[in-house]
């Protein structure tokens, strides 16, 4: 079934894709900016997979990257530098910028608040390196492996309810 959007299948007919192919995993789109943007090994990752519907220069749908982490400190160090560079532009992250949620030896990059909410329920925490950040009472706030960052389940624009 074709939708109204230039021959793209209607939303209910779209197929969610999963891939570990490096070229597919490296895809970016106009509405999804990954955290890890170059060689995964230099970020402390040993594997990556992409879930969702990549679309190149078109709209992507439900993209998340699953990262197996071999060096969490290296990942957090590189992610901190990327986050601070993003904040330097205008003091906030772009809406299309994915957030990095970490677990034990695994990380997920997504810009979908609903996906992050589900990950918070599974005890993943967001690596937040915003200078001076603090979370309200009732939210988790833990020390990250790099100075100047914390791990939290609180996002100012999307509080977990």
Notes on the structure:
By secondary structure, the chain is α+β, with helices and mostly antiparallel strands. 20% of the residues lie in helices and 25% in strands. The chain is built from 3 helices and 8 strands, in the order E-H-E-E-H-E-E-H-E-E-E. It has an 8-stranded antiparallel β-sheet, with helices on both faces. Strand 2 (45-53) and strand 3 form a beta hairpin. It is globular and about 40 Å long.
Relative strand content: 15-25%
Mean pLDDT over the residues: 82
Report the order of strands and helices.
EHEEHEEHEEE
Count all strands and give the number: 8
The low-confidence parts are: 1-15
How are the strands ordered across the major sheet?
1-2-3-5-4-6-8-7
User: Structural class of the secondary elements?
Assistant: alpha+beta
Taking the sheet with the most strands, its summary is: 8 strands, antiparallel
Name the shape in a single word.
globular
Our measurement of the CA-to-CA distance between the termini, rounded to an integer number of angstroms, reads 37 Å
The percent range for helix content is: 10-25%
Number of helices: 3
Radius of gyration from the CA trace? 16 Å
